[in-house]
Amino acid sequence: MADNQRPAKLLEKAFVDKTVLILAGGPSLDEVLPWLRLHRNEVVVFAVSRISRQLLQANIEPDFVFSVDPTELSFDISKEMLEFSSKPIFVYSYHTVPTLVNQWHGLGFYLGPRLPWPSPLNVANIGSAGPTVTNTALSVAYHFGFKRMVLAGVDLCFTREGFTHATGSDEQMAGPRFNLTSLQVETNAGFMAPTSCDFAQAILSLSFQAKQLSEMGCRIFNISAGSAKVDNIEYLPISEIEFGDGAINVAKIVAERISDAAEQSKYHKQILDELGRAQFQIKGIARLAENARRVNDEMYSADGVIENYKDKKRLDQIEKKFKREHRHFSKLVKSFGIRSFIKLTKAFTDEEWSAEEAKQLGNVFYDAYREGATKLMCLLDGAVERVQARQQEYADAPNFGLVIEQYRKDRSFGRVRLWKAIAELPADVQVQFADFEKHFVEIVHDKNTRHFAKAKSQGNLSSLKQRAGLLFKHKKIEELSDLLISLNKHQDQQAVEPYRQLITGYSAELQQKPAQALDAYRQIVDGGGVLVEQALIRIADIGIDSDDAHTANLALQCLSQLNPFYLPLYAEMQRLHGDVMVAIDAYNNYIGQFPQDTLVQIKLANLYTEQGIYDAAIMMLDYILAQKPDLEVAVTMKAALVSAGF
Is the pLDDT of residue 350 over 70? Predict the structure, then answer.
């Protein structure tokens, strides 16, 4: 609230019939940056905040930078925007993560309502259209008057190598993504590319928005052949797009629409008055909830029976006050106590509530009101302190102690840069501000963020194994080839080497090249490690398919030593090739480790019977029947042996 002074509505129709280039973070961003460096002065540029790092590396600043997400992860991927000069203009949703908004040192315009309750300060404004920041940028472009929107980096699909974002992003630095689904979309170039569920939904919402904008006279282009094909958006290479607007002085256009800095003190006074009104309302709600809780307790006897129906009338009067005197704020309090209010839900039955149940539910209800009021009051108190600190930034004799404490609470260390124009600062304040600025630089330059850790987890090698197996199962030769190429971009080439051999083997099998596949799998076995089991399975399968008993037997023997799960398979292979005693030993070894596996026990009993070892067969069947006396197959087998005189 402290920083939501300028509504984006101030720039309504400021760029009538102009063209805007909207930059997002997809891989195709790499294609447009070299062109943009040469033509920067010829086009108005919107950029989503997450690509600030790449723009800085390319020595490009946008005219407007956008952010809408409220999470700390959004700060992790967007914090480099704080290193732009003061020339770019920040357009942000009212719920954008505060650490971006309160450390921005240039002009800013907010989207949506200023306050979460009805207020004269909630002036008409442009909404924060979603679900993505790209949707927001498109909506704002329309409201600002632009008639042609050119998209770059709005791919909504992955490259064939599994990259989701442009060079320099956390996602690109973390390496190719392996936890892909089977979803694919057609690209502007006509080939199919992998995508994700959230990207697929974003395609639908973008198409719907593009249709609406087209009906209102706008044209939308995407400059990338590798981007997802989206209905109502035309594909056109950027070299073929005629911007034709000439140099546009964005700063001058914007300056004509905004008031001077003197409005700051007036706004801060207004927002403090409004916050005071909200505090008064919330305190009133808290008092009513406290009174209602006490009345609800006193209304019932020790036996849980209503003793005084006058108390019931008092509760009804309190409810009316909630609805009449505190109507808007009562709803807000409920939203903050929602988890407690959910406890009131109860399965519908025809039975009437007992008095004790009614008392308990009443207590939960009013406790939820108190909880919501307490949470909201904490936020309101914090907002008041923040606005008071902002007032000190414009005071003739600032209270630096208050300012410093607020910057520390908000982790808005970068805000000290606003004081650089002040020639004389107390020595102790200069020291503290220098320390804050140092801390700010460390935070902005820190690449080991939670978001980067999350991006790396999507390139987890266990996901690579699963994806390769899925593609092999569905005989996707081309996708396996793309996956193999993607490994060249992985940071740890030594770790991915066995995966490279596994994928090579899978591809060779699908292309009917068993010798080449065996060579790849044997390299995995020779090297040891995590994929030996998968390699041995494929070697055994190739041996069986090619009637190579020696290869199949050797692979199954190794598998059974790695994992007892394979002992029954090894035993069956030995039985088929006449090595009965080895088969019996393998079955017994397995049963010793998994004594509850009745199916394998039946197979061993059958083998004993086939070989005329009837005493062992009967002992095995007795063991089975001791566990499962009614198992029909075991009963039948034993009866047959007994009737035969064994």
Answer: no
